[in-house]
Amino acid sequence: MATFSRHAVLEWDGEVMDGAGDVTAGTRTFSVPVAFPSTAGEAPGKTTPEELLAASHATCYGIGLRSLIGRRGGRAQRVTVTAIVTAEKGPRGIRVQSSHLSGEVQALEGIDHEQLQEIAQDTRERCTISIALEGTVAVTYDIVAR
Fold it and tell me: Which residues pair with 101 in a beta bridge?
């Protein structure tokens, strides 16, 4: 088994509530502005840890879903997955409550509805981010073929 690591670097200026920063992937494939989500709303044009978690979950699950469809003899023109991470702001800070994956497989061939649902479940059980969230955050999914 091979071991690997990935990293990202946050550079933050100012205090938490009025400061801001940028997070950059170690591969330098992205650098995005980030901010702390205040109770007044999200800072326009900036992302949050919860949104980055949603991006990671959608990417992990979507690539895994596409991979398993192919390994099970199917073909698809496109796979689209949206991850909605829901969090609660309370006295102890922000706590992620759930991540819901909503997916659409376009032009699916060689896989019927029942098989697609089995693949969706297998993908959920194999997805690195789903596994990391397991036991602390509810992970649900809804995958359809169009």
Answer: 83, 141
